[in-house]
Amino acid sequence: MALEGMLIAAFIVGLLGGVHCLGMCGGVVGTLTFSLTPKHQLSQWRMLPFQLAYNLGRISSYVIIGALIGLLAASLTTLVPFLPFQQALQVFAGLFMIALGLYLGGWWLGVAAVERLGAGLWRRLQPFTQKLTPVRTLPQAWLYGLVWGWLPCGLVYSVLIMAFSAASMTQGALVMLAFGLGTLPNLMLMGVFAFYFTRWARLTWVKRSAGATVMLMGLWQIYLALSLTVV
Question: How many angstroms separate the Cα of 124 from the Cα of each of 119, 120, 150?
Fold first, then answer.
């Protein structure tokens, strides 16, 4: 898949993943929103800079992880033929996106098992968030978000596979940046209008529409990967 296609796909997956973000990050967003001491508590609109700082920290983590995973893939391509390696990764990423779509739509919950694989690392990192609360400054909010970005998430893992298939440090970082920007509207809305967003995201038709769209994107990615063999 060309870089442009990967960036578009990563952005759309992030945008449609708001339903999943509600379950994974809703508690974190609530904690961040209400972690200010009474002296520093702000109105919904004045919380926006803090919410933006949290989310930029989170996206910064995604970019770092994408760069590292892209660098790893680039080093592996020196050991194996590049095209078959890239095809296999893209097909795997497409299959994972189909599984993720089933998860988002509530049809199959197998992706939850994958998310548990990162629980050990998160347990090591979570104590740092406790040292950063209550949040009083924007740099503190950014650091909190930087740790938050390592929260185990099947949505992130699916896009990381896509970033890995790019086999480039720069492109891996760009793919994760596009994904992070796609998640930004949902999580910003969740932080400022948590009650209304929660009710909307729990609607069955919303979850199933998002899930079906992600599944179609997974099928499209598999098609593009297999079409690379066509001369």
Answer: 9, 7, 11
SS3 132: coil
What's the pLDDT score for residue 57? 93
Residue 53: other Cβ atoms inside 10 A: 21
136 DSSP assignment: -
Examine the pLDDT at 190 and tell me if it is beyond 70: no
| Residue whose entry in the numeric block shows the structure tokens 């700082």 | 53
Contact 70, 167 (CB under 8 A): yes
Closest by CA position to 182, among listed 8, 51, 22: 8
Q: Higher-confidence residue: 82 or 131?
A: 131
How far is it, in rounded angstroms, from Cα 156 to Cα 160? 6
Give yes or no for a contact between 135 and 33, defined as CB atoms under 8 angstroms apart: no
CB distance 46 to 64 below 8 Å: no
Asked if pLDDT for residue 20 goes beyond 90, the answer is no
Say how far apart CA 37 and CA 60 lie, in whole Å: 26
